[in-house]
Amino acid sequence: MHFVQFYPFGLGLIFLFTIQLCNTQSICDLPNCVGINPTSIIFTFCEGLGHHINSSCCFDKDSKVLLGLDLNGCSITDTSKYLDTLTTVEYMSLRGSDVNCSTNNFKGMINLRNLWLSDKCNFTCPGGDTAWHDESSNKCENQTDLCKKYNFTCPENSKCANNGPGLFHCICADSYYGYKCTRKGEFPVTIFTACLSTATVVTSAVLWFLTLKKTVILPVEPMQ
């Protein structure tokens, strides 16, 4: 007899998602990067402040917060898929890279204070002239607070916040959260985490049970 085991579709998705996470490459370990060395413009800032250097990245003394980044020689044309890890970066050099200065490459980088440009930027800072206090043909310094510059007004219970060079958005004001910031109070992090954890455990248990129990026995036709 032949035994055919049917795996739940959800389990397959979880497996693929896990593989994708495991294969996600750190921006500090991109191919062909020159790395931060004594000739790197980021080296002066990182070494001078006693920070920790790891390949193309400069971290704080505890090696937890990414503060500087040198993409010289790196095999990369945009940084969009790494933006979640770049929000704390203060110093960044694009020299010797193919990264352009599209604002999408810097979305969320609200702490970026010094940016050295690549040839792909065409001597233009991301966000344009109004996004920086000081700029030259190869360097942009000190982001402009566009919320204050344009006195932008957000809807009720929300406030304007910078979102990277040349970008700003509306976020919930203090003590408000939820859809259109209509809920007042603190977001129930503990309850949300507990519910999410419980749901994850239950779902995993159900999937595991189904993989064990959903076995179909197919009869073999007698040979003629």
TrEMBL record:
* Domain EGF-like per the UniProt entry, residue ranges: 143-182
The protein's UniProt keywords, in alphabetical order, are: Disulfide bond, EGF-like domain, Membrane, Signal, Transmembrane, Transmembrane helix
The secretion signal range is 1-24
Looking up InterPro entries in the UniProt record yields: ATRAID (IPR042350), EGF (IPR000742)
Membrane-crossing residue ranges in chain numbering: 189-210
Q: What intrachain disulfides are recorded? A: C172-C181
What is the designated name of this protein? EGF-like domain-containing protein
List the source organism.
Answer: Strigamia maritima (European centipede)
